[in-house]
C-alpha cells in the first residue's frame, strides 16, 4: 500500500514521516530536562539565570503552594502574565497538579477578561501585579476568589533590582513599567512560592489524555471560546516541532522567547518545545529590538521564532548597531505571510534559514511548515508536519476533495488537533468532522508535490503584529458609542504589522462623528492591538440580501480609495 502523502519527498534527511504518540503528560518533558541537564541554564530574564535544577525545584514548590490554595485536578487556573520566569514556573506547576492552565493576554481590559474568566470559571488567577487591579475589577462577574500577584522585578538580577531602588527618575519609571501595587486581599507569588516545600512525589500527576490548557480563540466564527488542548496534543506538537529541525541539539540550543507565551505559537515553540530539548530560553517581557540585541551579546540565540515585522526591525537595528547575529541557525515565522524580501534580508544577516509555517490555536497550533532546508519554498506555507494529514475540500461539501491546484477549504487531521471547545458542543460539532478532521476556515491550494499556499481567509480574521483581531468584537464596541449607528471593521495591508485595523462607521441620526475622538474612545475599551488605527465615515454600509454587512466589499472600497 502506498503512502498517500506526496509531501514526504520534501522532508529533509532525519525528519520522520510520523512521530510516536505521546504516552506521558507534558510535565514529563520538564522532568527529563531536569534529570539530563540540571546545570544547564533554563531561563535567562534580562541577565538573571535559572538552571533546570532550579526551575524544577521552583515548579515543585509552586505546585505545592497552589495545592495549599485548593487547586486540584481539573481546576482551571488563569495565567495573566507577560514573558517572565514566573510564567514558566506557574504554567508547569498548574500542569503538575493535573489542573488546567488558561492563558490570557495581560493587556486585556476588564470587560475582555471578565468574559473569559466567567466562561471557564477559574477560582485562582495568577497575574502580573500591574494588572491585578484589572482582574479584581471582574470579581462580581467571575468566580475568581484568589488573586496571586507576580512582581516582575523580583526576577531581575540582583544589581538591577538594587538599581530600581535608587531615587532617580529613570529608576522610578522602570519600576512603574515593571510592577504595580496589589489590591487588598491579593497574595504575593514570590512569598507564596518561597514559603512552600516541594510537592510530595506521592501526589498524583496528570495523564497524557487529561486537559492541560484552555487557549481562547475566535476560531472560525469570531466568538471567543476556549480550545481544549490535552497533554497529548501539546506534547505531540512539541515533538513534531523538535523533529522538524533535525539539527537541534539537546542541551545545546538557545531559544528567544520574544513571542508572548500566552499565545499558542509562542507557548509551543518557546516553552514546550524548548523545554523538551533542554534549551536555554531567553525571556523578554516585550518585543524591543534594542533589548533583543543587548541580550544577543550576552547569550547568542540559535533558534528564533517570530513574525515578519520582528525580523525586519531586528535586521535594520542589527545593521545600524553592527550586532552579529550569525549564531542564529534557524528561524521560524508564522501568524502572517512572510515576504520574500524579509527572508532574503534575514538570511543574509544571519547565514541561517528563515522558514514560514501555518497553524491555528485548535491545532496546538502548528500543522504545516516549510522544510528547514533548501527544499523550502518561499511564498508557500510549506508541507504538513509528521503524523499530520491534510485535505483540500470543497467548501460547500467537505466530503469532496479538490484536485491539486484547485482552491478549497483546508482540513487537518493529526495528534495535535484539539478535542473541542469548552462548554460549546455545537461550535465543536461545526468544526470537527468524523475521523478527527478540523475545518480551518482557510482557503488553500495544494501543489502536486504537497506544498500548500493560503489563498484567502473565510473567517475574515485580521492578523496584526501576529495577534488575531475579530472584526465583530471591535464592531460591537464601536456600536456602543452614542454617535455611531453601525460599524464595519476590516484589515488593510500594513508594512509594519501585516495588517492594520480600520473601521468604517455610520453616524447615528442627527449626530456627527469626530473620527479622532471616536478612536480615542475605542482605545479606552479595547486592547491596543485591537483598537482601530483609522476611522472612515460613510452614509451606509454595503449589505447582502439578508442584511449582513459585506466586509469584503468594505475592504475593497477602502483599498480602491485614494
From TrEMBL:
Pfam families: AMP-binding (PF00501), AMP-binding_C (PF13193). GO terms for molecular function: ligase activity. Keywords: Ligase. The keyword Ligase applies. InterPro entries: AMP-bd_C, AMP-bd_C_sf, AMP-binding_CS, AMP-dep_synth/lig_dom, ANL_N_sf, ATP-dep_AMP-bd_enzyme. Residues 473-548 form the AMP-binding enzyme C-terminal domain. SUPFAM superfamilies: Acetyl-CoA synthetase-like (SSF56801). Residues 33-422 form the AMP-dependent synthetase/ligase domain. It comes from the Bacteria. NCBIfam families: PRK05605.1. PANTHER family: AMP-DEPENDENT SYNTHETASE AND LIGASE, LONG-CHAIN-FATTY-ACID--COA LIGASE. This is Long-chain-fatty-acid--CoA ligase. It comes from Paractinoplanes deccanensis.
